[in-house]
Write a structure and sequence with these properties.
Shape: globular
Helix content: 10-25%
InterPro entries: Tubby-like_C (IPR025659), Tubby_C (IPR000007), Tubby_C_CS (IPR018066)
Family: Belongs to the TUB family.
Order of helices and strands: HEEEEEEH
CATH topology: Tubby Protein, Chain A
Number of strands: 6
Structural class: alpha+beta
Pfam families: Tub (PF01167)
Low-confidence stretches: 1-5
Oligomer: single chain
Strand order of the largest sheet: 1-4-5-6
Number of domains: 1
Protein name: Tubby-like F-box protein 14
Strand content: 25-35%
Organism: Phtheirospermum japonicum
């Protein structure tokens, strides 16, 4: 059938995520990520994940400039997590939890 089967192809394609690169803030002279007010404290644990562009083209519903997972510090021993499709809450939480293991001695 015309146009059929693409959803099945999309489901079989693995989702590859990467850290979003920070941008240089000219005014303050430091690297930063835009958390749109969700993260209020600088931390080595803060990160954003985006989908990696791979060939063949990814499903149209994935916008590669949109964050799939945000994680950042908002207070002493307080962090925020924001995620969207195609991650589940469990997957997002597991990714965020894993960020603590390698960065405990960094702060």
């Amino acid at each position: 059938m015309a146009g059929g089967g693409s959803n099945e192809d999309d489901k079989s394609r693995p989702l590859v995520l990467k850290n979003k690169a920070p941008r240089w803030h000219e005014q303050f002279h430091y690297w930063c990520l835009n958390f749109r007010g969700g993260v209020t404290i600088a931390s080595v644990k803060n990160f954003q994940l985006i989908a990696v562009v791979k060939l063949p083209p990814p499903p149209p519903q994935l916008d590669h400039d949109k964050n799939i997972l945000l994680f950042g510090k908002v207070g002493k021993d307080m962090f925020m997590m924001d995620y969207r499709y195609p991650l589940s809450a469990f997957q997002a939480f597991a990714i965020c939890l894993s960020s603590f293991d390698t960065k405990l001695a960094c702060e």
